[in-house]
Design brief:
The structure holds 2 protein chains of 2 kinds. By secondary structure, chain A is α+β, with helices and mostly antiparallel strands. Helices cover 52% and strands 14% of the residues of chain A. In chain A, strands 1-2-3-4 form a 4-stranded antiparallel sheet. Chain B is built from 14 helices and 17 strands. Classes of the chains: A alpha+beta, B alpha/beta. The structure holds pyridoxal-5'-phosphate.
Chain lengths: 142, 407
């Protein structure tokens, strides 16, 4: 399995093929369209990430020391972002997630191109994933 | 003489820029804040560079020049709204503070347990939450005037809500989402017949409607400077003198007092009783320039162009498949809140931004309106007299192009 950083580097390379931001967004939309929807029974407030302009659900399961995430959003660009995060953090140990440094978001320029307000929820998603990892890490080490 | 949009636009250098490489800015977020003409920036700069002195205090020339300039803006606002006297004009930092001031002070003065306050379903949160908090504090009840499918207030329901328990009615002059210009004359009349005070949230009204507070006979009228070409951090609360005199001060401190001992304080006269501390006089001076600017063109001419542009935009946009307009009242300001079927407002806003269009997306600080339509949010293009038909054309083309990206 690739490391978190290897996956990040792949994403950066993929996005560097597009010069135009509209093409980068078209790519995100495509990723969003390809991402499987989560089971509607998990699309409830408990798994909703608050404070974003679009609704984002993130549903974690824990198995064999690894965290498995499913996610969805009603905005397709955000769903594309969810898809990116899942690529990076899917089936990792809590330790891997907690020790990781996410640089791909800055590197592909998303930080400048997505409004820094709460609206896109990217940072809230990352924070929530790390919180799940932290909770799981405490649980297995206690 | 007709309205020359290019000439008008030339006062706003900010509009003439590429916001991303090769993407010309099209600014359609005018209901959030309008851009500032050069004369406003120059007025602020002049006072900062040449005049600045803390008003109402110094014996020196700078302080007295600044005081004179600040108080001259009060006279200007007084005549702009046709208030009966300058003491009725209170400077605040914006509509939000103005409404909080009235809600607190008027509430202290007139509200008892079991009394009622009426707002409408189409209010900005700034005209809901202060009343809600007041009602909680006083054990009073908040009632709501609903709106119909066109986005017009149900005055028939309003009449049934009014009773001798109604102490305050607070509604907006124009809705920041639906664009509806509300029949406030009628609302004021009906409320007064029931002995209730009326507060008008004029945030969206002041730039688009003629405001004559004496003719309207409203008890309070609130607005923000930054939505009529003035600087942020400036706002006005108009209030009838006899009410302001009876109301207790909202905030206390320096300048708003007459005498202070540790046992007791007596308050200064109006309007100073409601302006504690050092006010934002620098920006108020900018607000004066903004009002002068509006008067030099005449609101009527500006609004006529905005109305023409609005009709033009609606005729174009409604050709788009799946275009849904929120708010189709008879009488509207140039606000177009809409959705395109199958496209999320966040996606639309994000991509419009990439193409150079500044629009607002989301819930627009008006959750009850979103709940009414059962939507998570909308996209809003709010027009200003400096916008052009070419900008509307390019917006229309952009929407068509973006729609293709989501099929
Ligand atoms: C109708 C209405 N009321 C109140 C406000 C609040 O104004 P401010 O944020 O300037 O205090 C706004 C601003 O968006 C508004 O549109």
């Amino acid at each position: 399995m690739k490391t978190i950083n290897e996956v990040q580097d792949e994403i950066i390379e993929e996005f560097s093929m597009f010069d135009d931001w509209m093409d980068k967004y078209a790519n995100l939309i495509e990723m969003g369209n390809e991402l499987n929807d989560i089971d509607p029974k998990y699309k409830v407030d408990n798994y909703l990430i608050k404070g974003c302009q679009s609704r984002v659900w993130l549903y974690p399961t824990f198995e064999d020391g690894k965290i498995h995430f499913e996610g969805e959003s009603d905005a397709i660009i955000v769903k594309g972002l969810v898809s990116l995060l899942l690529k990076v953090y899917e089936d990792r140990t809590a330790k891997e997630i907690l020790e990781s440094e996410l640089y791909f978001i800055d590197d592909i320029g998303l930080t400048q191109h997505l409004s820094p307000t709460r609206s896109n929820g990217l940072l809230s998603m990352v924070k929530q994933m790390r919180l799940y990892a932290l909770a799981y890490d405490r649980k297995i080490n206690s | 003489m007709s309205f020359d949009v290019q000439e008008f636009r030339s006062h706003f250098p900010i509009l003439d820029q590429e916001i991303y490489p090769k993407k010309k800015l099209v600014y359609f977020d005018n209901a959030a804040t309008t851009q500032k003409p050069k004369c406003v920036a120059e007025a602020v700069e002049h006072y900062m560079m040449k005049v600045n002195g803390n008003i109402h205090r110094g014996t020196h020339k700078m302080a007295s020049d600044a005081t004179r300039a600040y108080e001259a803006v009060r006279d200007q606002v007084c005549s702009f709204m046709n208030a009966a006297s300058r003491e009725e004009i209170i400077f605040t930092k914006g509509t939000t503070e103005s409404i909080n001031l009235v809600a607190w002070s008027l509430g202290e003065m007139c509200l008892q347990t079991g009394d009622e306050v009426i707002v409408s379903e189409m209010e900005h949160h700034a005209n809901i939450v202060p009343w809600q908090v007041l009602c909680q504090r006083k054990g009073a009840i908040l009632k709501v005037i609903p709106f119909d499918k066109n986005g017009e207030l149900r005055l028939d329901v309003f009449e049934t809500l009014l009773s001798d328990k109604t102490k305050v009615v607070s509604v907006n002059h124009a809705s920041n989402v639906l664009g509806t210009i509300n029949p406030i004359e009628k609302i004021i009349q009906l409320a007064h017949l029931n002995g209730a005070y009326v507060v008008i949230d004029g945030a969206q009204g002041i730039g688009h409607c003629e405001v004559d507070v004496q003719k309207l006979d409203c008890d309070f009228y609130a607005f923000s400077g930054h939505k009529v070409y003035g600087p942020t951090g400036t706002g006005v609360l108009y209030g009838k003198r006899e009410l302001l005199e009876q109301m207790p001060p909202f905030m206390t401190g320096g300048e708003m007092i007459e005498t202070v001992t540790f046992e007791q304080t007596t308050y200064n006269v109006l309007p100073y009783k409601f302006e504690p501390g050092t006010p934002n006089y620098t920006d108020v001076i900018g607000l004066g320039a903004a009002i002068g600017f509006v008067l030099s063109y005449g609101k009527g001419k500006m609004v006529a162009w905005e109305e023409e542009l609005y009709q033009y935009a609606i005729s174009k946009l409604s050709q788009i498949d799946g275009f849904r307009l929120f708010g189709s009242a008879e009488n509207k300001v140039g606000i177009i809140s809409f959705a395109i079927e199958g496209v999320h407002h966040f996606d639309l806003g994000t991509l419009l931004d990439q193409l150079g269009f500044a629009v607002r997306t989301g819930r627009l600080c008006a959750d009850p309106i979103m709940d009414h339509f059962e939507v998570q949010g909308v996209t809003r293009a709010a027009l200003s007299p400096y916008n052009t038909k070419e900008e509307v054309d390019s917006f229309y083309s952009a929407l068509l192009r973006l729609q293709q990206m989501f099929v």
